[in-house]
Specification:
Elements (H helix, E strand, L loop, with lengths): L1 H13 L16 E10 L7 E6 L16 E5 L12 E8 L4 E9 L9 E9 L7 E10 L5 E9 L23
Antiparallel strand pairs: 1-4, 1-6, 2-5, 3-4, 5-8, 6-7
Length: 179
Amino acid sequence: MLALIGFVAMVIMLLPHVTRKKQETEEHKAPGNVIVEIHWPSDMPVDVDLWVQAPNEPPVGFWNQSGHIFNLLRDDLGIEGDATNLNYEVSYSRGIPSGEYVVNVHMYGKPPPNKGVPVKVVVSVKRPQVDTQQILTTDVTLTYQNQEETAFRFRLNEDGRLVPGSVSTLRRPLITRPH
């Protein structure tokens, strides 16, 4: 009997140290499922903005930094108030809803005279139990103030995979008026 009491006491003492892995639920999804980044040369002190739109959501960018799906995590003003000399902006999603995504770049300030601003745009997806995978990359050159260019329009399916044939650069303004 004494051995049984000792065994039960040890189990009770060890129970708090045994943890179960938490299952990700629909209500609680880790951020960073769809990651959209832009980078431009660090020697160009210009303000380029990233704008992203998830399916059935309003656009997210510098004046609307969060939505239900996307959040703009870094709004880079060029060199103003910047702790690093890197020029980049990044948006992360919570979850991967199926449907069309739009990624635009916007030249907020004036570019250097007679010189375009090359912007690298990268889209990556992190699906459950799969490492983050870069699915799209392109370069866009911005040449004038308030220029907005669609880097990508693409569709993701319910598994978070890129739908074949869905990628385009068909212009879809998110913050400026069509020409």
